[in-house]
Amino acid sequence: xxxxxxxxxDAADAETDLALLPVGSTEQHGPHAPLGxxxxxxxxxxxxxxxxYDGEVVVAPSIPVGIAEEHRQFSGTLWVSPDTFRSYVRxxxxxxxxxxxxxxxxxxxxxxxxxxxxEVCETISRHDAAYAVPFTWFEGVGxxxxxxxxxxxxxxxLLRHVAPDLVREDRIxxxxxxxxxxxxxxxxxxxxxxxxxxxxxNGVVGDPxxxxxxxGEELLALASAALVELLEAIEARDLGALGR
Amino acid sequence: xxxxxxxxxDAADAETDLALLPVGSTEQHGPHAPLGxxxxxxxxxxxxxxxxYDGEVVVAPSIPVGIAEEHRQFSGTLWVSPDTFRSYVRxxxxxxxxxxxxxxxxxxxxxxxxxxxxEVCETISRHDAAYAVPFTWFEGVGxxxxxxxxxxxxxxxLLRHVAPDLVREDRIxxxxxxxxxxxxxxxxxxxxxxxxxxxxxNGVVGDPxxxxxxxGEELLALASAALVELLEAIEARDLGALGR
Amino acid sequence: xxxxxxxxxDAADAETDLALLPVGSTEQHGPHAPLGxxxxxxxxxxxxxxxxYDGEVVVAPSIPVGIAEEHRQFSGTLWVSPDTFRSYVRxxxxxxxxxxxxxxxxxxxxxxxxxxxxEVCETISRHDAAYAVPFTWFEGVGxxxxxxxxxxxxxxxLLRHVAPDLVREDRIxxxxxxxxxxxxxxxxxxxxxxxxxxxxxNGVVGDPxxxxxxxGEELLALASAALVELLEAIEARDLGALGR
Amino acid sequence: xxxxxxxxxDAADAETDLALLPVGSTEQHGPHAPLGxxxxxxxxxxxxxxxxYDGEVVVAPSIPVGIAEEHRQFSGTLWVSPDTFRSYVRxxxxxxxxxxxxxxxxxxxxxxxxxxxxEVCETISRHDAAYAVPFTWFEGVGxxxxxxxxxxxxxxxLLRHVAPDLVREDRIxxxxxxxxxxxxxxxxxxxxxxxxxxxxxNGVVGDPxxxxxxxGEELLALASAALVELLEAIEARDLGALGR
Amino acid sequence: xxxxxxxxxDAADAETDLALLPVGSTEQHGPHAPLGxxxxxxxxxxxxxxxxYDGEVVVAPSIPVGIAEEHRQFSGTLWVSPDTFRSYVRxxxxxxxxxxxxxxxxxxxxxxxxxxxxEVCETISRHDAAYAVPFTWFEGVGxxxxxxxxxxxxxxxLLRHVAPDLVREDRIxxxxxxxxxxxxxxxxxxxxxxxxxxxxxNGVVGDPxxxxxxxGEELLALASAALVELLEAIEARDLGALGR
Amino acid sequence: xxxxxxxxxDAADAETDLALLPVGSTEQHGPHAPLGxxxxxxxxxxxxxxxxYDGEVVVAPSIPVGIAEEHRQFSGTLWVSPDTFRSYVRxxxxxxxxxxxxxxxxxxxxxxxxxxxxEVCETISRHDAAYAVPFTWFEGVGxxxxxxxxxxxxxxxLLRHVAPDLVREDRIxxxxxxxxxxxxxxxxxxxxxxxxxxxxxNGVVGDPxxxxxxxGEELLALASAALVELLEAIEARDLGALGR
Lengths: 244, 244, 244, 244, 244, 244
Hints:
Six copies of one chain form a homohexamer. By secondary structure, chain A is an alpha/beta fold. Chain A has helices spanning about 10-15, 35-50, 80-100, 115-125, 155-160, 170-175, 215-235; strands spanning about 20-25, 60, 105-110, 130-135, 185, 190. Chain A has a single domain (about 5-235), classed as Creatininase (Rossmann fold, 3-Layer(aba) Sandwich), CATH 3.40.50. Chain A is about 40% helix and about 10% strand. In chain A, strand 3, helix 4 (about 115-125) and strand 4 form a beta-alpha-beta unit. In chain A, helix 2 crosses helix 5, helix 2 crosses helix 7 and helix 5 crosses helix 7. Chains in contact: A-B, A-F, B-C, C-D, D-E, E-F. Chains A and B meet through helix 1 and helix 3 of A and helix 1 and helix 3 of B.
């Protein structure tokens, strides 16, 4: 059930304690992919998993602005502070839980959100009346994972599958030419770069040419299957261990 | 230009200092209208005005969860605290302004957001590097305004025009029967009710039967025209008076 | 019972759950009316209603500094941020409630406080051990309401009745000459002005010459009667609906 | 110049950078002295010093609710948290300073406010555009100081001088009988008591019978003279040492 | 039991509700004494008292950075804001209390921490599941107290006893020559100085030459005896008065 | 230069802009290793690197309490909230930077601190007058990294080398028997466990028997060499890219 489209009476009829909360980011994804890439992909994975799960799952509306200050030099990038982002997610989850949907997966499409989502989900699970975990879709795609980049093979592939009109095919060549081979500037496993503009000229990391539509289809299948498996485990999990 | 769909290179090419930030709420709108009504309507008005305005306007992604705790007893209603909502809007506006789009209209679809948006826009205009004002679409529809209600004539009408599939026509009769004639319980012009559940049984205020698609078309025309006029005034306004 | 003048033993004897908390502002009111106008008037209305109410009502000391940054260009105007103001009111109400006076009317004399008081009273009523509502005196004066202005007819009239020495009669002429006809600069029902100095030269809105002492007497009678009616309704109100 | 009674035009004419901000507390002072004692006395000292100082001094309105949770068991005691109190004082001082009155003495009537005022004045002087120091009147009365108590000799004496009607003479005997000889329960110079109710039955510490009107007159003279001397030193002080 | 050196299984075996939390400061103490003086001394007193107390006491690790902005002009001085310091202490105490050690003495070595520790311990005792009091070691040394200074007789003496290698004996002469005779610049019992650099050239107050090792030995004996007495009183204290 | 032991005059003489801030945690490390393990190890690595680096480096005192609520069920574990931890680190770094040491490595000994340190260092580098990066020692030990565990091979080894007295050799057998093979309970690469007590009986993860003193010596050499390399890179780095 998509909450945005349901009425409150539909919502009241939903018999489940599972909810998905897609969160993304509005930020540069190179010259060829839209600023909304991370919302689009998070939503696509949440939708696919919601459909595939054998049982009712509430899908909340997608949170469009996340933690993306690292891309601030690229026009159109929006961001809020980690504190504000955590509060926004935490309180939204609390309102979901108030209706009985108190096992929540935050379905994430943006690497920059990962640490804050880990923190806020732990806070929720320990101190609020809900259990929450984050799921970042490109962590759930098996071997493809190592190819992530930024605006690179995986995101381009998934977009080509779920929102092909948003990919500027005529700029793919530019995108790969200005791309950085890897994220960050590393010494002793520490990234010395503060912003992405320090290491990528056009905002891209990795080769978007490696992101075919077919690969996108596979990525969606893998990620949504991983999320379904996660939903099953959460539904089955005994939360008594948390002292509830 | 819709930011979610544009690339950063498109955004960098935009020659404007005007931006629209749609904000809504995910909350009960009776048995006949979707929980996402206030996002849908805010977005529709922002889009229409962005199209009609003679010049470039950046349209940011819509913020889906607002201040709606007053509807908490109705299933599916989501909300954040006023503090968190203000921070989320303020920081999003600041990131818009960082790219040069520093004259921002927050296009609002929800009455419960109005006081907080007034406050945060004043804070932004006085203390941040941007000028922001809130525009609530149903304030910009002339005489229709007095008919607002909740899930009532105006919202039902506008939805029938912009998202007819989301209106449950077969529940309109139920909706009008359980509706309250007016918002709140008033003594000496003070509303004694804390939550909407204290005065409306099914969440509706006003008669959704009075909300035809034709009326919705007129509402969109009126609201978007008012917003265009506002954009023109803001574009022309000398902000030197703020001591910048 | 005026708390400032009572002893704690008197307070312990008070058999009521009703309290009034006057809040004002210290801010410009033109060349003819004192900076303390909004405190003086709020206190006068609270006192009159406390006297007129048939039963015990605790009257707390008046909070003198509110939300008035909009008048910052006029010398002597004091203000705190909305966050600080809400905290100060909320915690003061909580301490009133700790003594059993947990039905509280915040009696307000300043338009700039209205949104923040609405928000904080809702927060108190939903989340704290008290029920609170705001009452702004010039909302409770019937048809006079439309004449409000700033340092205009209503405030000048009420001051002439309750604190005539504080009105500079010899500057009334100056006051009306430099006055603005209305508050704000409006386009599409949105006020584009951030500060009052953008639209009023001497800080006045409306004609203070229209504010006779007799009118002030009537205003006090109307406002205090409205407040008494509100107290009666609050005393009688079943708060079980809040789930207490 | 008393800000509450002045107009903004009067305030604009004031040629000074000195301001006094009286702060008190609304809290139990035994069965014989009013809850407003600390506001009344702070205001009296500020007024007397303002009159006696040879030059213009702006006197701000008195802040009536301070840090008094230690008296929470006694009816009528009001309090806010130290954080809120500091914010309220800091922001009020900032608005005073915005008009050029940037050397501010916070004139305090309540022991419980002392640590927080020390902290906030240091914060202001180091980080804001103002210089502020706290002056607690009963610290400026020479040898009398050791007699302070609570609702005891000094406060009773000063009240008898400045507000005799507020002292319940017929309860003085009760007051002294239930009084504690000293404040707190001490081991190794640490006060183990958290609240005053742990060591005083009726809220009084010290013998109010030792507080004659004549003594009150002397206290006011001493305290206001000390405050005048402080104003002179502050006016003369070179603040360049703060790096301004 | 020193928590840092114990294992969790040792900790689980501890049968006590008493804990000591040493807090210091890293700040200038003249040319002869180390920046860590206040941590070293607080720890020494806590250790000695922990050893001398007839029963089990948990000694937590020492908090090394406190409230010391007043020394900011002297190189090496570290500080956090009072808000952050209070939160750090409060939450650390809460975690101690979660293991059953809910009667806590914060053993303090720095004057600048005193007001904030008083405030946070009251907050803890009133609102958290613990009882906490602050003990500042140089308050517990009888008549020596009046000699405190800064980097002066008492601190130099105690260091010579507990950490003689950290005292630069060859700079004592310099230290006394550049020392100020007293702390602050006082008018009407108000300190007009904001930072210590305004009244001491080399950071020292008082004569470190008056601080022999023998005196240090006596100071440690006095302070730890006072702390043991405090622990005994706290262990015996009935906390029912707090309404637990 | 160790700040705790240096005087301010020594500090003023230091010619460097490099500082190390060790941060640890006081938390369970099984029945055989001390609660202070993460402080001890962070400090050892910082000290070794400070010694090995060819140039001056300021070493700040170690922060002993971090983010460790996940171990709350094990006695003796202390923790503060992520917000408080970030503030404590951020403000400490700001005071380091105020003395010219504005290139700071936070040397970390605890996995639970990693996300918060990443966030706060980015905040510092973008918004404060300093550049800061986190270095977690067990990330800098090459292939050993995969053996980390908790109270397992690496920490036991390093302790045996730097603080052998703190390792309870007679409990190693118990430690390995009750140990979990890996950290967490994973589904779709998401850890479903909220606290460590959900998956480890005695708090240990990995086999401490695999942690010989010799291995500890090698770990210290590897980690400190990696940190030295990091210091060299930071010293050489052009921070102009941050727009300073």
